[in-house]
Amino acid sequence: MPELPEVEIVRQSLSKKIKQKKVQKVIIRNRNLRFKIPLNFANFIEGKKIIKVKRFSKYLILCLSSGCYCLLHLGMSGTLHIVNKNKKDIITNTSFYNSPILPKKHNHVEIIFENLKIIYNDPRRFGFFEIVGNLYLLKKRFSNLGPEPFQSRFNYEYVFSFLKGKKRNIKNFLLDQKFVSGIGNIYANEILFLSNIKPDKKGYLIKKKECKKLVVNSRKVLSNAIKKGGSSIKDFQNIYGEKGKFQKNFKVYERRGLSCKRSRCQGTIQKKIISNRSSFFCNICQK
DNA sequence: AAGAGGCCCTGATAGC
DNA sequence: TGCTATCAGGGCCTCT
């Protein structure tokens, strides 16, 4: 579900709530997430302070005072919710995702602080928690992921040489976290539209000029999405109960049959399954 | 080695 | 109303 911009919005909100706070207790109600939460998981977190909340790609990173790191990936349907303790368990507009009311089902993990707790909810259980022992192991953990679009390493030379001679389609590359990390299905579609490139265009056919466009537009789409508070496909909200607004900027995603938003283009947005994922594109201006 | 496809899981929605 | 089928924003694994 959440791509880099949504995870970043969660990070920002979460950081304000739990930075420099000490974890009192961790309750695991269901260990069976994407990867099983190990039995000693709580020991790594209980009694530790959250020094900082970082993010890489679609991963949240809780930096613990012990020098350990707790990684959290939200998968497709993972959401975080804040419950304030001293208000008779009244849940205010504090959920990060989906609803201002704490869902009744699928609340798998609780991390409890002095005055509040955060609750991890995930119906599909594609998300996961992971403990990483130190900074060296953290770097190693992410070493097989490609650069984020914002990193200077993600430049047109890098893109061009990665695509060179490859038969895979470009949409597939944008979703490949080893190539570039943080982009998911929604933003891949939007990036390709802005770059005037058809999602099923083969890697080896992508010109240098198009590689430049991909770099520029990846950065543009993701940073605009962060500025707008992410995309609310269902009822995404930050901790203040505000919805993301980027879905209003979608040019192609979920716009099948509607007219192309590019000025003077007479095209219609098509939907096609490419590499097992829904792809949306203009039949005229994307080539 | 690259690339296609399957699979993990629940819930919402569409169609009969 | 109640069944079944399809689809959903991710990523890992296996097979060819």
Domains counted in the coordinates: how many?
A: 2
Which percent range fits the helix content?
10-25%
**Amino-to-carboxy terminus distance:** 28 Å
Total DSSP helices: 7
Walk me through the structure.
By secondary structure, this protein is an alpha+beta fold. It has 2 domains: 4-141, Alpha-Beta Barrel (N-terminal domain of MutM-like DNA repair proteins); 156-282, Helicase, Ruva Protein, domain 3 (Orthogonal Bundle), CATH 1.10.8. Helices cover 25% and strands 20% of the residues. The strands form 3 sheets. The protein has a 4-stranded antiparallel β-sheet, with no helix packed on it. A 4-stranded antiparallel β-sheet has the order 2-3-4-8, sandwiched between helices. A two-stranded antiparallel ribbon has the order 9-10. Helix 1 packs parallel to helix 7 and helix 4 crosses helix 7. It is globular, with a radius of gyration of 20 Å. The model is unreliable at 88-98 (pLDDT under 50). It binds a DNA duplex (16 and 16 nucleotides) through helix 6.
Topology:
Blueprint: H1 4-18, E1 25-28, H2 41-45, E2 50-56, E3 59-64, E4 69-73, E5 79-84, E6 107-112, E7 116-121, E8 128-132, H3 135-141, H4 156-163, H5 170-175, H6 185-194, H7 208-227, E9 269-274, E10 277-282
Antiparallel strand pairs: 1-6, 2-3, 3-4, 4-8, 5-7, 6-7, 9-10
Helix pairs in contact: 1-7, 4-7, 6-7
The protein binds a DNA duplex (16 and 16 nucleotides) through residues 1-3, 6, 34, 58, 73-77, 105-106, 122-127, 166-168, 172, 175, 177, 184-187, 231, 233-234, 253, 275-278.
